[in-house]
Design a protein that fits this description.
With 340 residues, the protein is α+β, with helices and mostly antiparallel strands. The protein has 14 helices and nine strands. A seven-stranded mixed sheet has the order 1-4-5-6-9-8-7, with helices on both faces. Strands 2-3 form a two-stranded antiparallel ribbon.
């Protein structure tokens, strides 16, 4: 490309603009998109990226994703080592063109086919390697919504737990003969282990931690979440719904096992006839509120159970709620109906 000729042409255009009177300049307003599109080509050629970005931001989608401009814009982002932005731009242009019903040109299709180049994949790898060093609370803030749309860490973990339980819900026929809660926990743990490693988190089954109900020995928690650095971040206690004493035993285990976290999750497997699901959930709430809690784990009875079902999709066979306890501790209760 002859840059001298290009610059001279640009200068001629600017000289022309300077000869226009105000009314004539206003008349050019109807051509603003075409002018900005031409500017894109010029600023790309002379590597004036600040003005390139200004021109790009002026474009409507109709011009921004014009097939004549797509290769130029994509290449500018690659030249600036903005591989992720280049990839996102290509994917957005593809979505736009497909929705518009445009027959995509062969050279543009080629860009789409090879968009995930080596440099982009290397950057993704570096990002994934670094994730295990990110604080759990920040993991919740950066995870794509399509994977988990909860930004508060407590509900982020609750979402993961519910997604795993939804698989149990789908497979209820296959687990119909199970009667021992540890076998349910085995399935739940296996599903969670498939979801969490992407963040460097790990799941531990029945770790010997804290103290037992008698206080004489270490206790066995059902499922323990740990961050990439081995820090305990959440505890799950699971039980088959029976009576108040059994519910109380499991809930009071939580602070005995780990007293340093402020989030616990109680999973209740409902194996009675489905007709009793609603009434048993009500009875469960009454039982939980009536438990005699230790002073550092007192339940806020004035708040009671905060219903959370509306915050999740496809949870018809679930009851989801949260209770508040002393020292800012939150306990999440998930009852799943595993009977037809």
């Amino acid at each position: 490309m002859d840059l001298n000729l290009l610059n001279q042409t640009r200068q001629n255009w600017e000289n022309f603009l300077n000869t226009l009177v105000d009314d004539q300049k206003k008349a050019l307003g109807s051509l603003s998109q075409q002018i900005a599109a031409n500017d894109i080509h010029y600023y790309a050629a002379v590597s004036d990226y600040a003005k390139f970005d200004q021109a790009f931001n002026k474009l409507s989608d109709n011009y921004r994703y014009d097939e004549e401009l797509i290769p130029t814009i994509y290449q500018v982002y690659l030249d600036r080592d903005l591989n992720e932005l280049a990839f996102e731009y290509l994917m957005s242009s593809q979505t736009y063109l497909e929705k518009a019903g445009v027959t995509i040109a062969a050279n543009i299709k080629l860009l789409y086919d090879y968009a995930e180049d080596v440099n982009l994949l290397k950057k993704y790898k570096i990002t994934l390697d670094r994730i295990r060093n990110i604080l759990p609370a920040n993991i919740a803030k950066i995870t794509p919504e399509i994977i988990n749309d909860k930004r508060d860490l407590n509900k982020f973990i609750l979402f993961e737990l519910i997604q795993a339980l939804l698989i149990l819900d789908d497979k209820r026929a296959a687990i119909k003969q199970i009667t021992h809660e540890n076998r349910f926990n085995d399935f739940l743990q296996a599903i969670l282990k498939l979801r969490l490693p992407i963040w460097g988190w790990s799941i531990h089954d029945q770790p010997r931690i804290g103290s037992s109900a008698t206080g004489k020995d270490a206790g066995s928690a059902d499922i323990l979440f740990q961050s990439g650095g081995g820090r305990n971040i959440a505890l799950v206690e699971a039980l088959i719904l029976r009576d108040k004493a059994y519910t109380e035993e499991h809930i009071l285990r939580c602070p005995k096992y780990i007293a340093t976290i402020n989030r616990y999750y109680i999973v209740v497997y409902h194996l009675e006839p489905s007709i009793n699901f609603d009434s048993n959930w009500q009875n469960y709430q009454v039982d939980v509120l009536a438990i005699s809690y230790p002073s550092d784990f007192q339940i806020e009875t004035t708040v009671g159970f905060k219903d959370l079902n509306s915050e999740f999709a496809d949870v018809r066979n679930f009851k989801i709620a949260m209770t508040l306890h002393s020292n800012g501790v939150e306990v999440y209760h998930v009852m799943i109906n595993l009977r037809d």
